[in-house]
Write a structure and sequence with these properties.
Layout (H helix, E strand, L loop, with lengths): L1 H16 L3 E3 L3 E6 L2 E6 L3 E3 L1 H15 L4 E6 L3 E4 L1 H10 L4 E7 L3 H14 L5 E4 L2 H9 L3
Helix pairs in contact: 2-3
């Protein structure tokens, strides 16, 4: 009986916490102080399927409320055109602004290419420092 109650409490706490944090096989996201934090997992290839999954899960997680988004793209190692195009068209749904966190030369090159070619529909900037990105996003809360 004790093991059952322990398992129930663990499951119940996870169900409550699921409102504040979400994770799929490509990324994890959470909301803190009015900003949605979005972090890609390591070694992600941003294909159309990946882009569609992360956008759909993010929109569902946001429960129809728009947020400024701090998006850590350092886990992305490559992209394809269909994934980039999808993000440019649908990736900004329910976002008021996006700060992309980059630190590797490859990621920065991919992100700069995305900004120049895809032209996101909301204000979007690149940062190598999370604190600077948060200062930028706070004006959109």
């Amino acid at each position: 009986m004790f093991l059952f109650l322990l398992n129930y409490n663990i499951i119940h706490k996870r169900m409550i916490a699921a409102h504040d944090f979400y994770e799929n096989e490509y990324a994890q996201f959470w909301i803190t102080n009015g900003i949605l934090f979005f972090e890609y997992k390591p070694n992600i290839i941003l294909s159309l399927e990946v882009a569609q999954n992360v956008v759909a899960d993010r929109i569902h997680f946001q429960n129809e409320k728009a947020f400024p988004v701090l998006c850590d793209v350092r886990g992305i190692i490559d992209t394809d055109k269909s994934g980039r195009d999808y993000l440019a068209q649908s990736g900004s749904v329910l976002t008021t602004a996006v700060a992309l966190i980059v630190n590797q030369k490859v990621t920065q090159t991919i992100s700069n290419f995305y900004l120049r070619i895809s032209k996101p529909t909301v204000p979007t900037q690149l940062f190598t420092n999370q604190d600077d990105a948060l200062v930028y996003l706070k004006q959109f809360i």
